[in-house]
Amino acid sequence: MEEKDIILINRILGGECTEELLKQLKQWIEADETNRKEFESYKRLWHSTHSKTPSAEKVAMARKKLLDHITRQQQAERHRRVRKIVAWSAAAVVALMVSVTAAYVHFTSPKEMPLAEVEAMEVKVPAMAATIMTADGETIDVENNVVSKTSDREKEKMAEQITEEDGLLDFSNLKAAVDTKTTVKIPQCGYYSLRLSDGTKVMLNSASELLFPTTFAGATRQVFLKGEAYFEVAHDAERKFMVSTSSGVDIVVHGTSFNVNAYDPKHVETTLVEGSVECRAKGETCAMLTPNQKICVHDDGSTSKVTEVDTYLYTAWKDGKFVFENESIELIMTRLSQWYGIDVKFDNEAVKHQKFTGILSRFSNPVDILKRIESTTVVEFFVKGNTIIVR
Q1: Is 139 helix (H, G, I), strand (E, B) or coil?
Q2: Neighbour-count burial for 13-43, b at 16+ CB within 10 Å, e otherwise
Q3: Does 344 have pLDDT greater than 80?
């Protein structure tokens, strides 16, 4: 294989498939059986190396080693004609580079494995964990009832005022200006409960955050939610409590218990446990809920039908459980992805609609949960690195 042949093949495999180039390739392949075999071999190597790109550092190291090798070969054969040396060197560089790259990708890429052959996935261990962010951008980390130490005096002073006991971060004693706002962020596979200045309790789910004023002022106690949270609102007949989301959906109450799922800002789901809530979209009232009712409000202002539900299905997460009742595999995988931070790929669209019923621990490894699901459904799971493939 000469240099011009390699250039021709690279152009075609790279997408430059003009009629003239294809004609040249066809003539070259048909000229000799060896050409055909070399082309098939080269094509396989090309596709194996272009399915996933290795790191630039690894490629650079491989290229240096190959060029050193070629230099030594050129010196050893310096009495051969210059044109043949150049052609052989170029071909060797390309072929060896492809081979090294293919080997690197093969040995470093995670392999797809049937679920039965996997003992556990490497995911974060579920834990009470949160990051407190002040209005000026300072952060304080909290994990498993321990507030991180800091040499910053202002941060230390704030940390001392935030009482932590039995998994509850109490902000009711925090002394700050009325207009000061605080954000609490929960990492993947984490959770934490808060007590706000008015006595309202909030439990935040994985990958969620709550922005709230250090001290509520005015006629409305307003907080801003991303993700999912369960609220137990302290009663105040004079001041309503409002949970706002990025899509313009607001939930307004005076004193009640309810769950808000806003992981997808385009579809905010509210489930009422006690009391009553008013759901608003873009400032307009769209529904009033009574206990054991659920509604989904969309970002365009439309809503689903208000339905009677078993609220435990939507609030069991705060008790450390996944509770599914005739739930679709698609939604179950969404919940697992939100909690564990794993990726999900469906190779079979039909299995999205398969149903599963069961109560599972959120503190289990995802492999154990998937094995339970696989044992009672026609769904098959495969693991590849941090990705679950569903078939």
Answers
A1: strand
A2: beeeeeeeeeebbeebbeeeeebeebbeebe
A3: yes
Residue type, 380: E
Residue 182 near residue 202, CB atoms below 8 Å: no
Please give the distance of CA 1 from its chain centroid, rounded to a whole number: 46
Strand ranges for 186-292 from DSSP E: 190-195, 201-204, 209-213, 220-232, 240-244, 249-253, 257-262, 267-274, 277-281, 284-289
160 contact partners, CB below 8 Å, separation of at least 6: none
In the block, which residue shows the tokens 């919940």? Answer: 335
Mean pLDDT over each residue of the chain, to the nearest integer: 81
The set of residues, in sequence order, having a beta carbon less than 8 Å from that of 314 and lying 6+ positions away, is 259, 261, 269, 271, 294
The pLDDT assigned to 368 comes to 94
Global pTM value: 0.71
Residue where the block lists tokens 């030594």 = 72
Cα–Cα distance measured from residue 201 to residue 75, given in angstroms and rounded to the nearest whole number: 77
Per-residue model confidence as pLDDT tens digits over 232-266? 999 998 999 999 999 999 999 988 999 999 999 89
Strands 127-133, 190-195: pairing kind: parallel
Q: Look at residues 320, 339, 319, 201 and name the one whose alpha carbon lies nearest to residue 263.
A: 339
Q: How far apart are CA 176 and CA 12, in angstroms?
A: 67
What is the DSSP secondary structure assignment for residue 206, as one 8-state letter?
T
